[in-house]
Design goal:
Strand order of the largest sheet: 2-1-6
Protein name: BTB domain-containing protein
InterPro entries: BACK, BTB/POZ_dom, SKP1/BTB/POZ_sf
Number of strands: 6
Mean pLDDT: 81
Largest sheet: 3 strands, antiparallel
Domain BTB: 11-59
Pfam families: BACK, BTB
Domain BACK: 69-147
Number of helices: 13
Helix content: 40-55%
Structural class: alpha+beta
Distance between the termini: 48 Å
Order of helices and strands: HHHHHHHHHHHHEEHEEEE
Length: 297
């Protein structure tokens, strides 16, 4: 894929920009030459030029057509800033992303990397599972056609592909309606005992909802038997004292030891003074404001 874009020999104008950078520390990087400049920087081991290319990539427009090429390039050349932009784009466009033909036909290593992103960027586990399953199903269909084997057991083929994705998916954080309608129908990827245990864990949760003053909401799941449920019920229709603090990249509902109250923080690693209660997700954008309300729904 990349090789079709990056030739082994470079054009005069591209090499001129390389020499200009070597002598002056400056060059003109554009959408048209950035991939070639990056390849030359890698080939000639010019770290400063490579960094300049990495700084340029966030300015480029990402879309469902070029995102896979960009992801492949970021991996090949270890482009950190570029990778950050790609990950943000994927997290914000995950559903159309995994529904695309490009996703269904990409390499498994790429799919695994994308599914693993879900835990970092608060992608819903329902969407992560659906993406993994649809890719696995498409892969099984392709193998059946390649082998020209009408007797290939499709369920077994899908199950084999799914095994690498399952460790990234927290089934006990799924909505019960999705689990029953989507996961159970594809229960052949689990043993009967595994499926029974997963169903029990999903059924043991209730949904907590937090709504800001603009009507935007985020949701999470907590155990039905937790004492937290009664505490939250006692707080219904009460507004928060102020906006929640932000830490890291994930949304969690936590209980603070020092202040003896609830707050919603965006954190990847809650501090020792907090008890983690639930991972929070939203259907749309959610802004932390004053006067947030919490309830069991």
């Amino acid at each position: 894929m990349i090789q079709s874009k990056l030739k082994l020999t470079y054009k005069f104008d591209d090499f001129k920009e390389l020499l200009t950078f070597i002598y002056s520390g400056k060059c003109n990087i554009t959408n048209e030459n950035v991939f070639v400049m990056l390849d030359m920087a890698e080939f000639y081991q010019i770290k400063d030029l490579k960094q300049l290319c990495d700084d340029f990539f966030p300015e480029m427009e990402l879309n469902l057509t070029n995102i896979f090429d960009m992801l492949e390039i970021s991996n090949k050349y270890s482009m950190n800033r570029m990778k950050e932009s790609i990950q943000k784009f994927i997290s914000q466009n995950f559903k159309p992303f995994f529904k695309s033909d490009e996703f269904l036909n990409t390499e498994k290593s790429v799919v695994t990397e994308i599914i693993a992103l879900g835990q970092i960027f608060a992608i819903k586990y329902e969407e992560m599972f659906q993406a993994a399953y649809e890719w696995s199903e498409n892969e099984a269909i392709k193998k059946q056609k390649e082998l020209n084997d009408g007797n290939l057991n499709m369920n077994d083929a899908i199950k084999v592909e799914m095994q690498d994705f399952l460790p990234y998916i927290k089934f006990n954080q799924m909505e019960i309606s999705f689990f029953e309608k989507y996961v159970v129908k594809r229960g052949f990827i689990f043993t009967s005992n595994e499926l029974s245990d997963l169903l029990e864990s999903v059924q043991s949760n209730v949904r907590v909802k937090i709504t800001n003053e603009d009507g935007q909401s985020i949701y999470g799941l907590i155990p039905k038997k937790s004492s937290t449920v009664n505490v939250i019920k006692s707080l219904q229709n009460q507004c928060s004292d102020g906006p929640s603090k932000r830490i890291g990249a994930m949304r969690y509902l936590v209980y603070t030891v020092y202040y003896y109250g609830f707050f919603v923080g965006i954190c990847t690693d809650p501090p020792d003074t907090c008890y983690l209660l639930a991972e929070m997700n939203s259907e749309t954008d959610f802004e932390f404001t004053e006067d947030c309300k919490i309830e069991i729904v």
